[in-house]
Amino acid sequence: MNIRLGWRLARLILHLLQGLLTCALVFPWAGAALRERLVRRWSARLLRICRVELERGQGADGEQTALGHALIVSNHISWLDIFVINSLHPCRFVAKAEIRAWPVLGWLVAQAGTVFIARGNRRDLRHIFKGLVDALAQHQRVVFFPEGTTASQGSLLPFHANLFEAAIDAEVPVQPVALAYLDSAGGWHPAVDYTGDTTFVDSIFRILKGEPVRARLACLAPIETQGAHRRELAKAAHDAIGAALRV
């Protein structure tokens, strides 16, 4: 291990420990506004340690702002996705259960309010669906990854439509978000993909050892849900993200 990599890893470990202490000592009494500030600040610093620079992108309708009250759906590439979004727009996430097993980070994202869903568990899905509707009704910003798993950059998997129903029931819009990770030449960054047999630890080392990353996040035009069907919403969101990513 070279000195630069060792220093980056040491900074990352110290930052994770700070996150653990914040969740244990501050979160129990902190209000929602303070939690959001802490999550945004901690996520932004995590990205800086990993040499990930944030860049705001735009879709076909120009640059959009993130709605304060919406069901946000995004393509899913890496464990970085949660922290890229949280560094700009702290949200409540719905994520696959495997994320809970990430060393340290899994516990941290759970403390930040992430809801974990097990694949194929219909009872779990019904419970989470109700929780989503309640959260949206309380004017929270909620995010989920409708692909259900991570995909390689340059591809976009079909969207699962079930959870789009929560936006219909809560009478809030769906806002698609397109995420991309670029290298210095503007191409897909080779170190970021988190697919196949890549482990969480492998992914961290690839990112820390690789060249700096430009994370481009584009908030796209909201999709109204009144009178819509969940499959229509899923297709519209898929098309919008695919067009923004040009895949």
From TrEMBL:
A GO molecular function term, named singly, is:
acyltransferase activity
Q: Which SUPFAM superfamilies match?
A: Glycerol-3-phosphate (1)-acyltransferase (SSF69593)
Q: This protein's superkingdom?
A: Bacteria
Indicate yes or no for the key word Signal. no
What are the UniProt keywords, alphabetically? Acyltransferase, Lipid biosynthesis, Lipid metabolism, Phospholipid biosynthesis, Phospholipid metabolism, Transferase
Which EC class, in a word? transferase
* Lipid metabolism among keywords: yes
Pathway, per record: Lipid metabolism; Phospholipid metabolism; CDP-diacylglycerol biosynthesis; CDP-diacylglycerol from sn-glycerol 3-phosphate: step 2/3
Which EC number(s) are documented for this chain? 2.3.1.51
In this record, what's one Pfam family?
Answer: Acyltransferase
Domain Phospholipid/glycerol acyltransferase residue range list: 70-182
Q: Which reaction does it catalyse?
A: a 1-acyl-sn-glycero-3-phosphate + an acyl-CoA = a 1,2-diacyl-sn-glycero-3-phosphate + CoA
CDD domains linked to this entry? LPLAT_AGPAT-like
Q: Which family does it belong to?
A: Belongs to the 1-acyl-sn-glycerol-3-phosphate acyltransferase family.
Please state what the annotation says regarding this protein's domains: The HXXXXD motif is essential for acyltransferase activity and may constitute the binding site for the phosphate moiety of the glycerol-3-phosphate.
Q: What is this protein called?
A: 1-acyl-sn-glycerol-3-phosphate acyltransferase
